[in-house]
Every structure is written in structure tokens, then in C-alpha cells.
Amino acid sequence: MAENPASTEEKPTKNLEKSSDSSASSNMREKTPIWGTSVGYAAGRSTIFVYLAYFGVVLGASPLEQSILTSVRNLGSNIFQSVWGWLADLRGRKLVIAIGLSTLALTTLLTPFSSAPIDLVIISLIMTSIGFSIIPAWNAFLGDYSSEKDRASFVGKINSIGTVTSIFFILVLGILMELSPFPFPQLNPDGSNNYIDVTPIFFIPFFSSALVFGVTIIISFFLIEKYFSREKVVIEEEFHPSWRTLIERNPPFRRLLPINTFFSFVMSTAWPIFPFVTLRVADSWLMVAFMWIVFNLPRGFGQMYGGKLADIFNKKIIIVISRLGYVTVPIGYAIGLVTGNVWFLILVNILGGLAFGAEDTSVATYSLDCSTEETKGRYYSILLTAGGLSAFIGSLFAGFVMDIWLKIAGISYNSIEFNSILFLMLICIGILRFVSAVTHKFIYSNPLDFELDLLTST
Questions:
Q1: Nearest to residue 78, comparing CAs of 299, 264, 355?
Q2: Rounded CA gap, 209 and 319, in Å?
Q3: What is the CATH number of the domain that holds 59?
Q4: pLDDT band at 234 (very low <50, low <70, confident <90, very high)
Q5: What is the domain extent for residue 89?
Q6: Three-state secondary-structure class, residue 193
Q7: Which DSSP state fits 456?
Q8: How many other C-beta atoms are found inside a 10 Å radius of the C-beta of residue 46?
Q9: How many CB atoms lie within 10 A of CB 165?
Q10: What is the pTM of this model?
Q11: Is 4 a domain residue?
Q12: pLDDT tens digits, one per residue of 394-412
């Protein structure tokens, strides 16, 4: 009996279609929870970065107290990163991601109950030291899904999705806060203020953030992990190699570490200052939200296109250019403070957002290029830990300098005259940022040129 040619040709086609459908379905199962986790984490995190510092000012934090709050947040965000990076390499990424999201949900829920700056300090320490364990684990998780060739593009794309979509969350919060019966913080020339009437408004952003983190925890359970940790535990092997071993055997990372650490110190000196400036120049919560929207939108573009440019050229060029872009931020805030024009703050937030997005992706993927398969979490966590310690010192240093200047000049931090101290600090920080950004020309162009396969050997 003759065979029907049509039937013989149809079978491979059907099998190919089934294989294609199965592959597409599998791809969606992998990517959907990645996108969801990125969006949820970015949205919840935006509340911490936007409103925590303002809450400190409204609770009556002095410049020194504000710098302590900022320092503790920087220290907590980074000091235990080596532990979390090691745990992510040893036990898997999802476990550490779940620990981080759960802690962030709980601490943001408790934050608006704070009644004094010291309460915020304690909550911030827990929030950042445990909650931000997600940072090295998430970076390593994304690294597992990419190759050296497209790593910056992939990581930048995923993180930019979260960053850009988080602007809708910030906008909704700004509208809700603006519609609430509580006033915007107002400082009078005589030193009086309405801060006590403002504090209840912070229940809106932090309760909302806790809810978002809770949903993200559920989404993260569906992440498909590609990194398989060792099943057999050998204590000597788990703790080897040490920090010293990892750093000494890695020339590119050994060059990057001190330069990045110094840059973190310089950057952090401005962070306690920005909240004071913002609340003295802006006039509504909607304007504050708009400032952060115009920061996050270009930040998302910076993450996506900065990552692509880093893959096309090299990461060093993008790191240098983006970190030079940070110089504009304190200068713009200084001009905005003197003129009372909030649009200067908005303009430099756009530039700062672009710089932050491109730099964040480039530095993170540069550290991944410095890593072997088993040390992705640890190298990035070492970078974060060193940077966190440096930022802790930098923010404290800025607070002490402002406090000394205030005492010498006999000025109260609740007075209009405090603006002159803020202005001088911002100009000095702008100069320091330029100097520290230029030092990045000394890092190696491509860590992949070095032989790194023996980094984990005994």
C-alpha cells in the first residue's frame, strides 16, 4: 500500500509546533515570576528610599541624627552582604530572596508606628541588614540566567522593568498623600513647624509597601532556580576561600574594590542632606512623588540601555561616564536651595537617574565578570560590604561636620540660616564626587581577560 506523502511531511511539522509551543510555555513559566519579583521588589523598595528619610526629618531628627539614620541604613544594607552572598552560593538564591522579602514586609509594616528618630534607627537596622539580603542573591540569580556576552543587557533589562513600573506605585502614593487631610511639612522663619501634625500620613506609603512585599513573596516562590547548591556540607569547604583569598587572586576585583569603596564614602556624604533640602524647596507630597518619578523613569532607561552599551563597548567606560554624571546632583540641589526653585532638583534627578541606572547595572555585572560560577554571590557581597562600611562612615562624617558648623555659627537646624550650611556642604561634595569618579579610569577594562578559574581551589 502506497504511503501518503502529505501524512509523512505533516508529522515533523506537528512535532516541531508542539516543541515550539512547549519551549515558549516553559520560557514564560521562567520569566513571569522573574518580572513579577523585579516589579514587586522595586515598588516596595521605592517607599523605603523615598519616604524613610523624610519621616526622620518630620520626627524631628537633627542633622547628626539624620546622618546616623542614613549611616545605619547604609551599614545594614551592606555589612552582612558577605554572609548573605555566601549563603546564596551555598544554599541557593531563592532561600535568601525569601528571607529578604519577608523581613522587608514586616519592617515596613512597623515603620509608621515610630515616634522618635531612635525608633527609625532600630527598624532601619533590621530592615536593611536582613531585608536587603535580597541584593546579592537577586544579582546572582540573574547572573545564573545570563552569559558573559549578554549579562549587562539581561540584568539591566530585568531591573529596568521593575524600576520603570515602580513609578506608578510612587505616583499613586503621592496622590493618596496629597488627598489626605494631613498637611505638608512646613518650616517657618522663626523655627516653628507643623511636623507633629504630619506624622500620621506615613501610614499610607509604608502600609502599602508592606502589602506589595507580601504579594512579591508569593510570586518569588515560583522562581525557577538554575543554580544548584551542593547537597553535602563540608565546613572547611564552605568557608573557603576567604575574603583575602578571593581578593588576592583576582587582579580586576582587587583594583575595583578600593576605588569603589572610596566612591561610596563620597556619595554617602550627601544623603543626609538631600531630605532637608527637598522639604525646604518642595511644597507638596505630589511634587515629592514627581521628583522621584523623574528619577526612576530615566533610571530604568539607564539600566536597560546602559547595560546594552556596556555589552557593546565595555563596562569600564559606562562606569566612568555614569559616575561623573553624579556630580550634577549636589550642584543642582545647591542651586535649587538658593533659588527656592524645585525644578533644579527635578532636572538633576533626571540626570542622576540616568547615571544611577547605568552605573548600577555596569558595576553589578562587572563584579559578576570578576567571579566564577561558585562565587557570584560572594564577590558582589564583598563589594557591597566594603561600600556599606565606607558609606556608614561617610554619612556620619557629614553629620558631624554639619553639627560642628551649626555650633560654631550659632545656628539652629530648624532655622532658615541652616540653608547656608547645606549649600556649602553640597558644593564641597560635588567637587569630591568629581575627583572620586575620575579615579575609575584606573580599573581594568575587561576582567574576563584574566584567568579566574582557580579562584576556588585550595
A1: 264
A2: 31
A3: 1.20.1250.20
A4: very low
A5: 32-224+239-447
A6: strand
A7: T
A8: 25
A9: 17
A10: 0.79
A11: no
A12: 999 999 999 999 989 888 8
